[in-house]
Specification:
Chain lengths: 243, 319
């Protein structure tokens, strides 16, 4: 078996042997339900869309994804198993991808478990299922980007709390950097080109356009490159930490 | 199988390893000795490719560890210091993971797990979660992991740490047996282990090799080595000590006890201990002494260890 799969399998087993995966799934589903129905007013809208579900995704993930990702490398460093893993015949890349994929699979499972929403909205009306599918794709990609950030920060420290806080801060930055109140603030100091550049890092614009059903290659590229960049940074951080 | 040339490792301003070179062939068991913080674990981590050396080269089975790390690691089994393992797994799960990482699957994986479980006496805990095991068992599991693919080269950092005396004995004989057709490096603080299992030992102090040789050669460096210890029974009379001192080839005498008389004779540089022993026996029959014990000291490894790796305080104050 490919070492990436071996590592991913072990990692997945680890999530389900500990409460991490279950707690994450339950909390995610509860919160998603709460925001969609109570805060988002799913029924009151009278429209056959899942907008009230997807609009909260960036905020839900802001806390829940770092909570899943914070242990990916810090746990390994704290327990000393990093030394075991990195003296087996695998390249750091394979280990990084294997662990990332396992955690991403947990996030994907959570997303998959929201399927009753799709049934409900199809039962109640005639939604555009293509848009809904695009929304799921956008959510999955966004979860992947957040997760890659969490992997990166967890490689930097053996303390999970520090890792969690760092990744929440980075993710929050990515949410806020395109938000008008923040960009308006930035305009006062920096020239508009810089502000535009910073705003283009914003996860919101890219996620919103995908979840509207517009599959623009730039948005897909944005998430893909965020993932690749953060995983690359993870490998650099892991290498420097080994001394 | 292993060649290390001029390894150095700096951690910031600290020099942990300072120009270590050694080679290791198949069929050899090399012991690493040295005080805490000497650089044994750091050297092993560099040999396994876990940390890159600041300078120097390492080749493992003909593969340069920096250029072909994967090929080199395939040949290696490694037991890190403190024997880490994934505490969220069961013993079988963990060994299965290690086997799969080494490319074993299906039947060969099952057989490998069975083999190491037998060698390391893991039978009773195979289905147990690692987080519920005692320290010694966790140590044995990590040891089992290092030999699961029957590697040609084994690197063991304190393999008997935390084991009970029976297990220590088992691990030592395992190392000695496996050493016949593998190349093994292991570090230890237990000097008898070196004599019991090593074909060669290196003593490291402050990142440098201060002694390198077979256990017998190292023991010969002890000041006691070659000295004669004599116990005389009965009442050999007042002058027995003086008479022994006066024998040809005696450099120095140390009295270990009076009544019964116990002395140690140190032969002069070019006098073989056996010649001196013969002279003692002749003197004994001439003076009608009863010899209760007469032996040639081999020297003790811990004397050698202590004399060449002084603790920090003594070394500083001598400067
Ligand atoms: N990651 C690191 N960062 C800074 N210093 C380190 C690091 N790892 C080891 N050292 C230092 O390098 C020196 C050698 O450490 P090493 O662990 O190799 O010693 P050792 O011979 O294995 O000792 P022991 O017998 O206690 O296991 C020590 O002074 C240690 O403090
Ligand atoms: Mg050590």
């Amino acid at each position: 078996m490919n070492p990436i799969l071996v590592i991913a399998k072990r990692e997945l087993g680890g999530y389900f042997a500990s409460p991490v995966a279950y707690v994450f799934l339950v909390i995610y589903l509860l919160l998603a339900g709460f925001f969609t129905f109570m805060v988002g007013g799913f029924f009151e809208r009278g429209a056959a869309t899942l907008d009230s579900f997807f609009v909260w995704q960036p905020w839900l993930y802001l806390f829940l994804v770092p909570a899943v990702g914070m242990r990916v490398w810090s746990e390994e460093r704290r327990m000393g198993t990093l030394e075991l893993l990195f003296t087996m015949p695998v390249s750091p890349w394979q280990a990084i991808i294997g662990k990332f994929l396992a955690a991403w699979a947990v996030l994907a499972l959570a997303l998959l478990l929201t399927f009753p929403l799709v049934f409900t909205v199809n039962y109640l009306g005639r939604p555009d299922n293509g848009v809904i599918l695009a929304g799921y794709l956008g959510s999955l990609l966004m979860a992947g980007a957040y997760l890659a950030i969490a992997c990166m920060t967890s490689a930097a420290t053996r303390n999970q709390v520090v890792s969690f806080i760092l990744s929440v801060v980075v993710c929050l930055f990515l949410i806020l950097c395109g938000w008008p109140p923040v960009t308006n603030l930035l305009v006062q100091w920096a020239n508009p080109a810089v502000v535009d550049a910073v705003a283009s890092f914003s996860v919101m614009a890219h996620f919103n356009s995908i979840s509207k059903g517009v599959l623009d290659s730039r948005d897909l590229l944005y998430f893909a490159s965020a993932i690749v960049f953060c995983l690359f940074a993870t490998s650099v951080v892991l290498r420097t930490h080994r001394g | 199988m292993i060649q290390a040339r001029n390894l150095t490792k700096h951690f910031g301003p600290k020099v942990a390893v300072d120009g270590i070179s050694f080679t290791l062939e198949k069929g050899e068991v090399l012991g690493f000795l040295g005080p805490n913080g000497a650089g044994k674990s750091t050297t092993m981590r560099m040999v396994t490719g876990f940390i890159p050396p600041t300078s120097g080269e390492i080749s493992v089975g003909g593969h340069d560890i920096a250029r072909e790390p994967i090929a080199a690691r395939r040949l290696l089994g490694y037991l890190p210091e403190n024997a880490p393992s994934y505490s969220d797994m069961t013993v079988t799960g963990f060994l299965g993971f290690a086997a799969e990482m080494r490319g074993l699957s299906g039947d060969s994986k099952k057989r490998a797990i069975h083999r190491v479980a037998e060698m390391c006496f893991l039978g009773p805990v195979l289905q147990q979660g690692i987080d519920t095991l005692s320290k010694g068992y966790r140590h044995r599991i990590c040891f089992a992991q290092s030999i699961i693919h029957d590697p040609e080269i084994l690197i063991l950092d304190e393999p008997t740490d935390g084991l009970d005396p029976n297990q220590k004995h088992e691990v030592r004989s395992l190392i000695r047996d496996m050493g016949k057709n593998k190349a093994i490096i292991f570090s230890t603080h237990i000097l008898e282990e070196v004599e019991a299992a090593c074909s060669r030992a290196i003593i490291i102090d402050r990142g440098r090799i201060v002694a390198n040789g077979t256990p017998a050669e190292l023991k010969a460096r002890s000041p006691e080595s070659g000295a004669l210890t004599i116990h005389l029974g009965g009442s050999p009379g007042e002058g027995a000590g003086k008479k022994l001192r006066a024998l040809a080839g005696v450099e120095r005498i140390a009295t270990l006890g009076e009544n019964p008389l116990r002395v140690r004779l140190y032969p002069a540089k070019n006098t073989p201990s056996a010649d001196l022993a013969r002279a003692v026996l002749q003197a004994a029959s001439a003076h009608a002494w009863q010899i209760e014990d007469l032996r040639i000291e081999e020297g003790r490894l811990d004397d050698v260890f202590r004399s060449i790796t002084l603790p920090d305080t003594t070394k500083e104050s001598r400067k």
